[in-house]
Batch of 3 targets.
Target 1
Amino acid sequence: MSTQKVHIVWYKRDLRIKDHGPLHKAAESGLPVLPLYIVEPTLINAPTFNPAHWTFIRQCLIELRENLAKLGQQLVVRTGDAVQVLSLLAAEYDVEQIWAHEETTDLRSFMRDDAVRDWAKTQSIPFDEMPKNGVVRGLSLERRDAWKSIRQDRMHKPPWHTPEALKPVVGIAPGHIPDHDELKLARNQRELQPAGESEAEKMLQGFLLWRGSKFIQEEAIHLKAPAASSRVSPHLAYGTLSIRTAVQEVRKQLKNFKHMPPQEKRQRGKLWVGSLRLFETRLLLRDEHMQQTEWNPSLEIAHEMSGFDGLRPYGNEGWPMALREAWETGRTGFPLVDASMRFLNHSGWLNYRLRAMVVSFAAQNLWLDWRGIAPHLAQSFTDFEPALHYVQLQQLSGTTLNRGIRWFDPVDEAKRHDPQGEFIRRWLPELAGVSKTYIFQPEHMSIADQNRFGCIIGRDYPAPIVNYQETTAKAKTQLQAIRSPQVKAFDSGLELPSG
Ligand SMILES: Cc1cc2nc3c(=O)[nH]c(=O)nc-3n(C[C@H](O)[C@H](O)[C@H](O)COP(=O)(O)OP(=O)(O)OC[C@H]3O[C@@H](n4cnc5c(N)ncnc54)[C@H](O)[C@@H]3O)c2cc1C
C-alpha cells in the first residue's frame, strides 16, 4: 500500500465540477483528491439501460475528465462492482475519506450505496454523502411544510465554490473511458441532445434568455415543444447541471425582469414571466416526486395501493405481448399515440403531456401493467430518472393514493395541440397524404378516400387496436371499484388488508 493519503470523490449522477459539494469538501482537506467514476456492470445490464444512455454518460465523462484535469487531477475511471473497486483503491492508497452525493434513484443504487456504507464502516473510512437537491433523507412528504422549508433553504444557499486546484494523486493510472464496443453495447442510433457540463449551461441559458419566452404557451404544442421546452432534463438526471443552479438562474431572470425598462420588457414578450414561473414550478415538482421515491423506494416495483395487485396482467401469464409491441413501435392505429412513440424512439425525448398521454393510453386502454411498460420507456428516455419515472407511471395508471386520475383522449389531444395534424404527418409517413378531415381518425375514411389519399387501413396503417370509449369506460369502473375504499381508508387513517 502506498502511504499517500487521499480523499475520494465518488461521482455517480453528478457529473460536473460546479456547485459540487463533495469535490469542494475533498479539495478543502488539502490532501490529494481522487475523483472516481465507476462503470458498474449492474447498471449497464439493467433492463432500463440503453446504449443511448452510455452515449450521453460517456460524453459527460470525457468533459468532466478534461475539466478536472485543468484543476490538477483528472477523473479516474474503473470498471466493476462499487465495493470491489473501492476496496482495491483502499488497498493501494491510504483513503482518509470518501465523499459522494446522496442518490435517490432506483433500488439497485439504494442497495449499492448500503453496501458501500457497510464496507466503509468495516474499514473505518468515513463516507460522507451530501444532499444534491431538495430531497431530504428520512423525511416523509406528509410533513410537506417542513420539507418545503428545508428545500427552500437549500435553493437559497450560494452554490459550492469550484476548487481552484486539486492536489494530484501521484502515479495513479487514470483508466480508460470504455466505448460501446468495449462494453459490448450496440451503437446508439438516436439523435441525442448534446451532453456535458458546458452544454448544460448553454441549454439552460438559451432557454432562460430566449428559447423559453413562450414556454407557457408552446410547451404542449407537439411540433413546438422540443424547442420551447427547457430540455434540461438529461442534464439534471446526470448532474451536469445542479438543480440549485437552475433555480437560482431562473430567479435571477425574474428579478432582472422587474427592473427592466419598459421597452426591453416589451421585447421579452407578455408570456415571459409566466414561462419562467412555470419552469420554476416544474423544478419544485421534480424534487417533490423525488422526495416521494426517497421515502418509498418500493414504488419502483410495487403498487402504492396494494389493492391493485393482480388487477392488470403482469409477468408471463396473460401478458398481452401483441398490444405492448404495437404500442412500443407506434402501430396502435391511434395516430397521436403512434407519432409520439415513433418520435420518442427517434429522439429520446417527449414533452410531459405526450409522455402522460402514451402512458395513460397503455395503462387504461391497453390495460398494460405499468411495470411492463416502464423498461421500454426508461430505455427510450435519455433523461431516465427512476425517482420521477415510477411515480409518474403509477399516478397515470391510477395506482397511487393521489386523489384523481388524469385521462388523455388521443384524438382530443391531437386536435387541441396539433390542429393541422403536422406532427402526426411528420412521424407517420404512411399518413402524410391523408387530409385534415381524417388525419386524427384515419379509420373513418371510405375505401375511395383510402385509395385517394394513398393509405389503406389494415395494410399501410392499422385500424384502432382497441375501442377507445369502451376501454375507457371499463377502466374507470374497475379502477373506481378498487380506489374508492382504499382512498377513503387512507383519508381516515385506516389500514386496509392488501390484495
Ligand atoms: C410517464 C412519465 C415519465 C416521466 N419520466 C421522466 C424521467 O424519467 N426523467 C425526467 O427527467 N422526467 C420525467 N418525466 C417528467 C417530464 O415529462 C420531463 O421531465 C420533461 O418532459 C423533460 O423535458 P424538459 O427538461 O424540457 O422539461 P421542462 O418542462 O422544461 O421542465 C423543467 C424540468 O422540470 C422537471 N419536470 C418537468 N415536468 C415534470 C413533472 N411532471 N414531474 C416532475 N418533474 C418535472 C424536469 O426535471 C424538467 O427537466 C416523466 C413524465 C411522465 C408523464
Target 2
Amino acid sequence: MHEKPMVEKALIAPSTYKLQIETINHFAAGDIKKNKLIMDNIPDTPLSNQVLLAAKQGTPLVTFGKKQNPGILVLAGVHGNELPPQIAAVKLINKLAAVKTNITIHIIPFAIPLSTEYGLRSWKGQDPNRTADIFGTPTNNILSTAKKNNIKYLGDFHSTRPGGYPGRLSVLCSETPCMLSFQMADFIEKETKSTILSFTKAGSIYPGALEDVFNIAEIPAVTGEAMSPHGTIMPGSIEASLEQMEAFLKFHRAYKVSLQIT
Ligand SMILES: [Zn+2]
C-alpha cells in the first residue's frame, strides 16, 4: 500500500504524539489565527491547533523527547514579520510528531506571538534580535529557558528581504568562543544552497543578537536566513527555511527515519 504522508498520519492519530507543549513569555502571548498568511500555510492539524492555542498563553515551547535530557532548540519568529521560518517550524513540528527522534528536540515556532499576530518586527520599539543580552526581554527569556532545559545547541531561523542584510539564503555563525557554531553552519551550507557567513568572534558585529548571546554563553548557535520580503512569503522560501532546519537536525543526528514527505 502506498504510504500516507506523515502529516496525515499526525491527523489520524493525535494521541500518539510523544511531545509536550508549554509556554514561556506570557507577556508576549498573541493570537496567531489573526495572521492570515500564517494560517493559510501551516498544516491544518490538531497538533497545529494545540500550538496556536498555546501561543495565546505565551511563547510556545514544543518538546519531543525527555525534557531533562540534553537537547537542541529550533527557533523561529524572533521577528514577527518574517513568515517563512515560522510556517516551516510548524511544519517541522507536524513532521516530527510522526517520526522517532534520537535526541530531545525543542521547537519554538513563534518566539513572540504578539508580534506575529500583528506582523510586527520590533518589540516595544526595539529589535528583539539586539536585546537578547538584556534581562527580561523575550529573547533573553529564551536564553534562560534554554539553560533551564539543558539545551545544548540553537538554530535560530529568520528570513531576509532582498536588498537587506544578509539579503540572501545564508547561514550565520562565529568561530569563537564556539567552533561548533562554525561547524554546524558549514554542514548546513553543504546540505542546502545556503551561503555561510562566518564571523571570527561572537557578538563583535551585532551585540545582543540571539545567536551571539547563545555562543557567548557557550551554547553553540547559528542563524539561518531564507529569502523573502518582510510580511510576505516568497515562493520556495518556506521550503528553504525547512531545509535549513532539517540540516540542523541532521547535523545532530536527531531522528532515525527520513523526514521527507510527498
Ligand atoms: Zn530576522
Target 3
Amino acid sequence: MKINLKVNGILEEVEVDASAVLLDVLRDKLHLTGTKEGCREGECGACTVLIDGQPVDSCLYSAAAAANAEIETVEGISANGLSAIQKAMVEEGGIQCGFCTPGIVMTLTALLRQNADPTPQDVAVALNGNICRCTGYSRIVSATLKAAKNAMAQKAGDAHA
Ligand code: FES
Ligand code: FES
C-alpha cells in the first residue's frame, strides 16, 4: 500500500506493507537512521519519535496509522545544528555510548515543549519509557534542567531586547 508520511515537515509517499512499523519505514525506506532499534518490544525507548508532538515507540507504531500525522525524528530537531537539549546533553555528560540518546532527546524535546520549567521528578517521569544503561540518568536530568534554564534565560533576554 502507498501512504503519505509527513516527516520533519516533508511529505513523503512511501510503499509499505500493511503490517509495517514506523521504525522500519523511517530507517529502511527514508534512511533516517538516527532513530534506533533496541528491544523492538516497546521497552527501551531507543526508537522514540514524536507523532503530533507526543513521544511514541516507533517499533510498535503502525506506519499506516502515522499517515498524515506530523512525525518528528532526531534529524528534524537538529536540522539547524544541535538543539538546546542536545547541547546541554553534551555539556553535562548525559551521553556515553549514545545509543539511547536520540530517543531520550525526543522524549525530552516533547517534555520541554509542554513544561518549560520541569522539576527533576517531572524529568524522571517523562523518561519512564527510555532506558539508558550507561549514564545512571542523573546527568541526563541535569542536562534537561540546564536546557530549560537556558531557554528561560534566552526568553527573558529576548523580552528585554
Ligand atoms: S526499540 Fe522500540 S522501545 Fe525498544
Ligand atoms: S548512553 Fe549508553 S545507553 Fe544511554
